[in-house]
Amino acid sequence: xxxxxxxxxxxxxxxxFFFACGVLAVIALLGIFAxxxxxxxxxxxxxxxxxxxxxxxxxxxxxxxxxxxxxxxIMSSFIVTLGALLIAVPIGVGVAAYLSDVAHWRVRExxxxxxxxxxGIPSVVVGFLGIVxxxxxxxxxxxxxxxxxxxxxxxxxxxxxxxxxxxxxxxxLTAVPPAYxxxxxxxxxxxxxxxxxxxxxxxxxxxxxxCMLGMGRAIGETMTVLMATGNARTFPQLPQALLRSVRxxxxxxxxxxxxxxxxxxxxxxxxxxxxxxxxITFVVNLxxxxxxxxxxxxEL
Amino acid sequence: xKGSTKKKxxxxxxxxxxxxxxxxxxxxxxxxxxxxxxxxxxxxxWEFLSTAPRRxxxxxxxxxxxxxxxxVTMITAVLAIPLGMCAAIYLNxxxxxxxxxxxxxxxxxxxxxxxxxxxxxxxxxxxxNILRFGTSILSAGLTLGxxxxxxxxxxxxxxxxxxxNSYREGALALGATKxxxxxxxxxPYAIPGxxxxxxxxxxxxxxxxxxxxxxxxxxxxxxxxxxxGDQFMALPYHLFIMSTxxxxxxxxxxxxxxxxxxxxVLVLGLNMTAVIVRYRLRRKHx
Lengths: 300, 286
What we know:
The complex is a heterodimer of chains A (300) and B (286).
Chain A: H1 2-40, H2 43-46, H3 49-54, E1 58-59, E2 67-68, H4 71-102, H5 105-120, H6 123-141, H7 150-174, H8 178-186, H9 191-202, H10 204-220, H11 223-228, H12 249-256, H13 265-299
Antiparallel strand pairs in A: 1-2
Chain B: H1 2-41, H2 46-50, E1 53-54, E2 59-60, H3 63-94, H4 99-111, H5 116-130, H6 137-161, H7 165-173, H8 178-206, H9 210-213, H10 235-245, H11 253-285
Antiparallel strand pairs in B: 1-2
Helix pairs in contact in B: 1-11, 3-6, 3-8, 5-6, 6-8, 7-8, 8-11, 10-11
């Protein structure tokens, strides 16, 4: 009898242990959020929230008047990300459509791991290639002094978000019920028409989710934009901004956190940028998640 | 008749366009690997791999950076592998469909979307300041470990999902407890897959820069770290410095290329190792 009770106790202890490990994910996420909030809160003793979010001027080390506006960094982040999506979405969806509908299965078996290799290249290496490969090319083509521009960052981020976009789009295209395609072909549509007018629309929510996940990755990417976009502290104005240096939120944190004196308004303000970044990526990922989830439920 | 020819022409060009997309992606990857391989290969020598940088990092090798990356990845593994596996066991074996389970899954997916620099900020506060580990291998490794955790959980769960339910039911039917059935009938078959997935996560962590920049990686250190409380040099951070912060960037470009090559070989090598480990372990179980 006692043996049975100890056995049961042991079982529930083991269960509790695994449960604790699982819950750790929730604690970690909340912990990151709480840390960012508590560390950025003191910044707003000295800085007005409206100035922080809406002013274009960021000059925390100015001798006369310190300024803490992050609007130009938010804009820079969005411009670089938008550029990346404009390049990556058509190409990524194209590759996904090719793999799911046109390619021989052997080609698919080879290409998928190759795309994984692309995902495995560290961001610092991609940034390095931006400096040595793409920047000189951009400077030559557009005849500008140096190629460390928003466009350079966009191209690199596009390459980095391609694997995400390709693999999730391909999954959602393969998940379209075969009956859809068969019905379309039976009605006399060509394979191209079937792909373009039946399968792509049917997989649209998955593809949108894929693009949003790629976008989340691009906004939060640090090393690549830090190395490849020049980091000038100016307000980006479209459309010239693509060929100018920009400084994104991530790059600004990376540049200034190493030099800032601890526990100053500047220090706290850097964490506040981190908080803004966290909130933006959180919302983007959450929306992608909801879209993807709905899509999966409908399939079931 | 005419309509069908038009259809065929459009289809031909459409598929051609899609094929071009694929070739473009493959061409970019080839260009990357070729550029780094051809320009980095020349500067690689035994001396480069086994000595420290000299003369303001314009000569010498990357030995301390290799060692630093190795040590920090070990810490990452110690944190992320066991925790990731245990969390996956909970999710796949114990968890019921409940609101809490959904919350855990949602958190994991969102954790994997948190930008790496935000993990760096978190590491500065929690490990460097609050826990007083300072800027050290330990702080950097734990920060990377936390970042790797969602990947290892997801990968481990994928591996657990491949084990058929009949394995579990067989043990339970013979009177085994839940844990006994997991230990004897699930884990032995799932661990190869779990390890593969987690090593892939480790490879990604080894190449990360942003989380370690402020939690322990150093610009240059004359000697190797003596304990886990010391700062360290790391390959990705070294590459960043050699390509953007160095006072003679053009002069040290060959060294930067060689560093990039070593980093890529290391990361892709870890990937290959994972695949080989899985293959070996699977054969053993047959």
